[in-house]
Amino acid sequence: MNDSSASDGAKTPQSLFASRRKLYVRAVKGTFQNWRVALVIFTQIVFLGLPWLTWGDRQAFLLDLVSRKFYLFGVVFWPQDIIYLTAVLIVSAYSLFLFTAIAGRLWCGYACPQTVYTELLMWIEHAVEGNRNARMKLDAAPWSANKVTRKLLKHGLWLLVALWTGVTFVGYFTPIRQLVTLLPFGVSGWSLFWILFYGGMVYFLAGLLREQVCKYMCPYARFQSAMFDRDTMIITYDAARGEPRGARNRKTDLKEAQLGHCIDCDLCIQACPTGIDIRNGLQYECIGCAACIDACDEVMKKMNYPLGLVRYTTENAIAGGYSKKEIWRRMFRLRTLIYATILLAIIMAVAVSLWSRNALKVDVLRDRGVMAREASPGVIENVYRLQIINTDERAHQFIIEAAGLPGMEIGGIEQPISVDGASRRTVPLSVRFKLPREGWEPGMYPMKFTVQATGEKALQREEKSTFMVPEN
Q: Do 324 and 452 fall into the same domain?
């Protein structure tokens, strides 16, 4: 709070923060709304359906944190494959940069989980409480059985959607078929916590906070301008065509009335999920959903005016009157070409790496307790632990060999070593080296282990290590 002096000398308190004004978003129809509906349906089919797909005898997509294995259809990733997660994050970042530089906040408007679930919960709200005017009347009316019933039904359906979303989210980390059979009382503590936490976030953020998340909590809204330039496609109001705005009927002569095409109906504001007036120019609150375009185009059709008073275009196109061909040509400018080149190079590198990925991984650890010892007169022995990781889904048998010093032999194990599919096995073994008669200088000597699957030359891995020869 802040005190300011009034004209009569009295001090009146003033709030530094504006209270939230509840938005009653108007439902619209049009091309962009159809795209939003399609994206909501598509993303939910993928999100809700992916955990239920099977691959062989297991879940096709499973992030098993307990056993530290990530199953992606026919590929199994281990902690040693962290480079691929890094690549995914880099590709996601550059994709965001590229799409934002070309066409603004497409991610926010059509695919962001906050947008998708807000839209989904608003559909439920519209179905239960009615259109915009009906919802405003319902909220303004005194409490009654009808009002209580509608409010309880709406929030109950929201909670069901949110909780099932939480179950699906946990189903990516715990086999979902097993998880569902344990509901509601057999679920482990951590699984239940994350179901309630994620579901609660969906209900709270998408159902209650809605536009407040995009306006005040999302960092992307704050730095998006760094990726925009005057050739970025954004939702723009054509002020030269629309102004001066004013109410009129369909038969009004615009030249005589000295009016532009905007009839000042405010439908673009009512349709906006963040409640902004796009006629005031580009604002960070705009999520690029294009609901205002659909709303305005409907009005333009009724008034027999050309469409596109509010449209996707660029600042340079508005200022220079560019054609669509010129707008598309300017999309492929230096910035977007750099983003696209880097993105394509990373994707190709990851694809090549995955294609040539070796399903065998080997880690070599020296036994710190027994660095080197004399196993028998003239024979030096070093002890190691080899961790063999078979990322293939089939079991394999492996032969281990050691090389580096003449006559090296492996002991302490029976070969071949059997390792089940998508599993690891730690193999303790010893490497022996017989000293020649003329002696051998003490020290650390380079060597390597070769692990190869029997009958499969491609499934082979070489790992470097050292062999220690102690002083006499």
A: no
